[in-house]
């Protein structure tokens, strides 16, 4: 059975924040599925209209390896995206990795997940202002992406680092290969194995 990666669609999601990771997951044999709160096309920040594969209510039963939460303005309002947010603790308890970038990081802060793990965000003062109950300041870093206890957080300007943490944490690229992947996309230094499909 294929491993599954689920991407949450919400109105105005930031297209580019998951654009690097999805092809890599698909190449690694993951089934990439999109999920939303309705079966109607969701328009991204860049104007793409994506028809979701599944409803949020249907993803409990598919046991994804990872749930990816792209950023976007909809996360600014705590009343938005409540259905997917309510499932995050359940997924983490079941061993699903949760990867949030940009505005989606605030959702993790609102439900207390970031109070006890190393994490990052767009900007610490803004995170504290948006989430008055947040108390994880001592665990916040200025890195563009962080991973701890099956949770990945990233700044909106860290799409490559976000992808790196996902690929490394899932074991898609192990050890030095993950570093070489990032070095290629950041600095143009291509390892020979990157284009060789026979190399895992």
What can you see in these coordinates?
There is one protein chain. The chain is an alpha/beta fold and 200 residues long. The protein has a single domain, classed as 3-Layer(aba) Sandwich (Rossmann fold), CATH 3.40.50.880. Helices cover 28% and strands 17% of the residues. It has 6 helices and 9 strands. It has helices at 21-27, 82-93, 104-110, 124-130, 159-170, 176-187; strands spanning 4-8, 31-36, 42-43, 49-50, 54-55, 66-69, 97-101, 145-148, 151-154. The chain has a 7-stranded mixed beta sheet, sandwiched between helices. Strands 3-4 form a two-stranded antiparallel ribbon. Helix 5 (159-170) runs antiparallel to helix 6 (176-187). The chain is globular, with a radius of gyration of 16 Å. The mean pLDDT is 95.
Task: List descriptors.
28% helix, two-stranded antiparallel ribbon, alpha/beta, Rossmann fold, 200 residues, 7-stranded mixed beta sheet, 9 strands
How would the blueprint of this fold be written?
Blueprint: E1 4-8, H1 21-27, E2 31-36, E3 42-43, E4 49-50, E5 54-55, E6 66-69, H2 82-93, E7 97-101, H3 104-110, H4 124-130, E8 145-148, E9 151-154, H5 159-170, H6 176-187
Parallel strand pairs: 1-2, 1-6, 2-5, 6-7, 7-9
Antiparallel strand pairs: 3-4, 8-9
Question: Would you kindly provide a brief summary of this structure?
Answer:
The chain has 200 residues and is α/β, with parallel strands linked by helices. Helices cover 28% and strands 17% of the residues. The strands form 2 sheets. Strands 5-2-1-6-7-9-8 form a 7-stranded mixed beta sheet, with helices on both faces.
């Amino acid at each position: 059975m294929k491993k599954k990666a689920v991407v949450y669609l919400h109105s105005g999601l930031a297209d580019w924040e998951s654009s690097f990771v999805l092809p890599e997951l698909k190449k690694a044999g993951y089934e990439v599925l999109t999920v939303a709160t309705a079966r109607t096309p969701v328009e991204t920040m860049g104007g793409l209209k994506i028809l979701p594969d599944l409803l949020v209510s249907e993803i409990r039963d598919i046991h994804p390896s990872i749930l990816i939460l792209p950023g976007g303005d909809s996360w600014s309002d705590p009343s938005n995206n409540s259905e997917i947010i309510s499932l995050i603790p359940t997924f983490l308890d079941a061993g699903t990795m949760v990867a949030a970038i940009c505005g989606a990081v605030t959702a993790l802060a609102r439900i207390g997940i970031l109070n006890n793990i190393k994490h990052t965000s767009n900007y610490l003062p803004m995170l504290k202002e948006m989430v008055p109950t947040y108390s994880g300041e001592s665990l916040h870093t200025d890195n563009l992406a962080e991973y701890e206890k099956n949770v990945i957080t990233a700044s909106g300007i860290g799409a490559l680092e976000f992808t790196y943490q996902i690929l490394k944490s899932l074991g898609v690229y192990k050890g030095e290969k993950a570093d070489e992947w990032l070095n290629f996309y950041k600095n143009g230094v291509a390892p020979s194995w990157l284009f060789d499909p026979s190399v895992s």
